[in-house]
Automatic annotation (TrEMBL):
Protein name: Sel1 repeat family protein
One Pfam entry name: Sel1
InterPro entries, per the entry: Mitotic_Regulator, Sel1-like, TPR-like_helical_dom_sf
Cross-referenced SMART domains: SEL1 (SM00671)
Length: 416
């Protein structure tokens, strides 16, 4: 038997949260399943959290997401006599009066006090639960308090403020001891305050990514690496991104790929960049970026064999998800113009090339060519020449310009 819970639960807490980078998450999940079936209510509670998705557990564990199963397990946890199960069910909105009547505790306060005792003794998950009880106002139901119990609105607000503010200490203790989720709530608390009772203090959130990275949380290492990248501190950025990716944090792969692609903080290596972008296709926040950049590498044959079909598939997928994102516009325009990886379509080629709003000689050449020759739309030689001239010393553009001249009278561009 562990210090606070069964051996199974304590090992699972370590591998799922406190040392989440061990790669033992799936084994912990399976152990919790067996323990839950055997009547361990704490195991049922923790297993329920595993089913709740990335809001509650690290995506790197690749746990299945199933809200119905999570609800069933929380109910089971309460009925099996778990104090953390009662508190988690309360926080999740699952603790109906009917379910509360099935718990083995005389009151919510009794269950809360048991969790509080473990929190005071240093148990990180319990510290997180206590922090949440104050942060989300669950203490009102636990203490059976409402506005009617106070002589004035000011007295009630003072009571609320006193209790809500307790979350900060508990979240910090939990964050330091192994619960990365507490850092997320601390960030929200500092950035937003709490209603009109606690004022925001965004300056206190400034170092949370660095602190979380130093504690060893892969998701914080990724976020801190991205933060350092934005600040152009590339050597430090690469170090944290590489460590995060090495621990299985796919969200780090976008910026890590760019580090390899551009040689920022590490020697340029297009093959490594492609490898990172490929892994990053499974990320939550950087799928579009990884798809675009990997598509460009396949288009160019940089770090991977040139493959226009793959390039088009990746670039078009990214555009279809976010049509306002024009990052891959040139490559898509070129694919449609030349029939690379897709059926040739000059109309679509024009559409995408016109989305290019940066200085791209290749895009200007193609767009000028299409306008001047009336491909994909009405012929417009003056506009075509304008784009060809913007292409500067682009060899094909200079060659194409030789096909046009200005009329003697009026100075209008026409075909020779």
């Amino acid at each position: 038997m562990g210090r606070f819970f069964s051996d199974t639960v304590e090992i699972a807490l370590r591998n799922i949260y406190y040392q989440m980078w061990t790669g033992q998450g799936q084994q912990a999940f399976q152990s919790l399943e067996h323990a839950s079936e055997a009547g361990d209510g704490d195991a049922s509670c923790l297993l329920a959290r595993c089913y709740c998705g990335s809001q509650y557990v690290w995506r790197g564990h690749h746990f299945p997401e199933n809200d119905r199963m999570a609800s069933q397990l929380l109910h089971r946890s309460v009925e099996q006599g778990s104090a953390i199960g009662v508190m988690t069910a309360l926080r999740s909105g699952e603790l109906s009066p009917a379910l509360q009547n099935k718990m083995s505790f005389g009151s919510l306060q009794e269950a809360f006090d048991l969790v509080l005792d473990m929190a005071r003794a240093g148990e990180p998950f319990c510290q997180y639960i206590i922090g949440n009880a104050y942060f989300w106002w669950d203490f009102l139901r636990i203490q059976k308090k409402s506005r009617q119990d106070f002589s004035s609105q000011d007295a009630f607000q003072s009571y609320l403020r006193e209790n809500i503010s307790k979350c900060e200490e508990w979240f910090w203790k939990s964050f330091r001891n192994g619960m990365y989720l507490s850092g997320i709530n601390l960030n929200y608390y500092y950035q937003n305050g709490n209603e009109n009772l606690i004022l925001p203090h965004p300056e206190k959130a400034a170092d949370l990514n660095r602190i979380g990275a130093e504690y060893g949380y892969p998701n914080y290492q990724s976020d801190y690496g991205a933060e350092l990248w934005t600040a152009e501190r590339y050597d430090e950025s690469f170090r944290w991104l590489k460590e995060a990716a090495g621990h299985g944090e796919v969200e780090a792969c976008f910026y890590l790929g760019m580090a390899y692609e551009y040689g920022h903080g590490v020697e340029a290596n297009a093959a490594k960049a492609a490898e990172c972008y490929t892994i990053g296709l499974d990320s939550k926040g950087y799928q579009i970026g990884c798809s675009n950049r990997l598509g460009a590498l396949y288009f160019l044959g940089s770090g991977v064999p040139q493959d226009y079909a793959k390039a088009f598939q990746l670039l078009r997928w990214a555009y279809d998800r976010v049509p306002t994102n024009n990052w891959g516009a040139y490559y898509l325009g070129a694919c449609y113009a030349y029939g690379y990886g897709t059926q040739q379509d000059y109309t679509l080629a024009r559409k995408f090339l016109e989305m290019v709003n940066w200085n791209s000689r290749d895009a200007f050449y193609l767009l000028g060519y299409l306008y001047a020759r009336g491909l994909g739309g009405p012929e417009d030689i003056p506009k075509g020449v304008e784009y060809l001239q913007k292409a500067g010393d682009h060899a094909d553009a200079r060659k194409e310009l030789k096909n046009y001249k200005k009329t003697f009278f009026g100075g209008k561009w026409v075909r020779r």
